[in-house]
Amino acid sequence: GQSLEQPSEVTAVEGAIVQINCTYQTSGFYGLSWYQQHDGGAPTFLSYNALDGLEETGRFSSFLSRSDSYGYLLLQELQMKDSASYFCAVERDDKIIFGKGTRLHILP
Amino acid sequence: DAGVTQSPTHLIKTRGQHVTLRCSPISGHKSVSWYQQVLGQGPQFIFQYYEKEERGRGNFPDRFSARQFPNYSSELNVNALLLGDSALYLCASSLGGESDRRTSRYGYTFGSGTRLTVV
């Protein structure tokens, strides 16, 4: 089947670095995307990895390894406003599949 | 520029009724997709449309249907509502879809959603 696995919750300290992992059991997808969603808000696009390797966008970086069926989102210099849910997603056969999301808690 | 707009924002319906949700994409975006999101879960893909044609369909019953209009706006229709249809319904628009069907590379811009409650 097609599924994306993420940890349900992650806790980190303000100013620190946190990594949110995404493993998948699907092949033939186009790339790995990441979205952020605050409580009561809409998902917002963070990054897209078409190829293996690291993509950096400001404090956020995303990584993909197709050979390991694995990707991650790296958040640096954590701020309280980064408290949100984070979703990985893939597109395959004109369908978009989201993971169940990781709730990021940030401690002051 | 206006973002993706959805209407209504909230809706309460009775079991067995029909509902129509509306979405206007960002200007220039020809691809529209619909998702159902229940609390604590990721968005579940329902449909993707491009140039008025259905491009993709998720694992939802035939009670769910959609269409896209010449101005690229879209409607999601749900018939014979069940209690389990209560959820946040999200619409997203994206660039791409012409020669390259891979719309996810451009990122999806989501609307704020319609909160549907079925009682």
Ordered list of secondary-structure elements with their pairings:
The complex is a heterodimer of chains A (108) and B (119).
Chain A: E1 4-5, E2 9-13, E3 18-24, E4 32-37, E5 44-49, E6 53-57, E7 60-65, E8 70-75, E9 84-92, E10 95-98, E11 102-107
Chain B: E1 5-7, E2 10-13, E3 19-24, E4 31-37, E5 44-50, E6 53-57, E7 64-68, E8 74-78, E9 87-94, E10 109-110, E11 114-118
Parallel strand pairs in B: 2-11
Antiparallel strand pairs in B: 1-3, 3-8, 4-5, 4-9, 5-6, 7-8, 9-10, 9-11
Structure description:
The complex is a heterodimer of chains A (108) and B (119). By secondary structure, chain A is an all-beta fold. Chain A is 0% helix and 57% strand. Chain A is built from no helices and eleven strands. Chain A has strands spanning 4-5, 9-13, 18-24, 32-37, 44-49, 53-57, 60-65, 70-75, 84-92, 95-98, 102-107. In chain A, strand 9 (84-92) and strand 10 form a beta hairpin. Chain A starts with a strand and ends with a strand. With 119 residues, chain B is mostly beta strands. Helix content of chain B is 0%, strand content 48%. In chain B, the strands form two sheets. In chain B, strands 2, 4, 5, 6, 9, 10 and 11 form a seven-stranded mixed β-sheet that branches. In chain B, strands 1-3-8-7 form a four-stranded antiparallel β-sheet, with no helix packed on it. In chain B, strand 5 and strand 6 (53-57) form a beta hairpin. Chain B is globular, with a radius of gyration of 14 Å. Chain B starts with a strand and ends with a strand. The mean pLDDT of chain B is 93. The A-B interface holds A 30-31, 33, 35, 41-45, 48, 50, 87, 89-91, 93-101 and B 33, 35, 40-45, 48, 55-58, 90, 92, 101-113.
